[in-house]
Amino acid sequence: MELLVLLYALATLYFLLMVWKWVGAKRDQECYILDYQCYKPTDDRMLSTKFCGEVIKRTKNLGLLEYKFLLRAIVSAGLGEQTYAPRIMFSGREDNPTLLDGISEMEEFFEDCIANLLSRSGVSPSEIDVLVVNVAMLSAVPSLSARIINRYKMRDDIKVFNLTAMGCSASLISVDIVKNLFKSYKNLFALVVTSESLSPNWYSGNDRSMILTNCLFRSGGSAILLTNKRAMKNRAMFRLKCLVRTHHGARDESYGCCMQKEDEQGRLGIYLGKTLPKAATRALADNLRQISPKILPVRELVRFMVVTLARKMNRSSSNKTTGGPKTEVNFKTGVDHFCVHTGGKAVIDGIGMSLNLSEYDVEPARMTLHRFGNTSASSIWYVLGYMEAKKRLKKGDKVFMVSFGAGFKCNSSLWEVMRDLGDGNVWKDCIDRYPVKSTDNPFMEKYGWINQEDPSTFQVPEFI
Question: Where along the chain is the active site annotated (predicted)?
Fold first, then answer.
């Protein structure tokens, strides 16, 4: 009998030990954001309406029809007069970029953003265990990640990932890489660096499907410091709850809707096809279908199933294709704040409609687009910075991020706020002016006369 009791006791102790080890392993796999920093270029790189007109004028391949198209695109884009461009634009050399232009643009960002992040967090470069760099449209030798390692003299055993061609959704891909590494290695610091090199990627042709990117993309970038150290939990800003990646590259229609290519005259640019909205809608729907069960409470999922079933039964009994109660999922039951990618006004509107968001919910994305433009993969971190600067983020809140990218990709994640946040960050000098009453820009007032011009008699004036 005593032997049997001893065996039961040993079995119980073994079971408790396995549970303890499992809980400990799960705790070590947590992914925290310790700090993040968004890049603010210097004021001499700010794009005014007047300067934008000068840039458009010196693009010699444009005619009146292209001017009218650009005017409509810029007026409806939602960008203000405080966005930033690379230095090559201000020297008038956008048609003849060099490799050094692109590298210098990135190194200026590295010098400011990474240095500020490490200084503010108190983490030295030698403590960084993982470095993930994503810059979609610049590939250099040595790589951009190697340049960061050389600049900050990081360790020779650092784990390095250098991503290119991942588009506007790359920062969440980078976070996913870090999250997976955290599952296998304990006590790590990871640095994610995300930006875009615009210097070599100005489109100087007249293909409308490729001109549009000139109106939307602006200089920017961000650096994010992540860790799975238990000791850092109380210092962390956010904890990753889940992350879902959706890739529709196997569908030809989705694959070809956004790509870098040459136009008929051999000028390189980013092509945005007419199927892009449809591809984005499909990718978002599939992504939401996967992440919804992970982030929404059971009561909301049950409500959705019951309402959907009732709608189907109503259609069946009445032989109608419409009618019945609505079946939208209420994402606000599991999400407090929404970080929407600033791909453009239409993108923000589309996501807002899909998720049934209010103007308050999409305000951070609209204001980020107005102030900084589309900064590619770093955009969602500027949106997050807006929420923080507005003191909206309270301990326990859930923040949902969603972004799109060429391929075609839709990536999303849910973060939990670990403590009350209210740092002014990159927004500190202007947050009191936001939200602005109107996101209209003065282009129509200054250049609206173009719409009255006759193509047969039009000549570009000396000053426009």
Answer: 168, 247, 337, 341, 370, 374
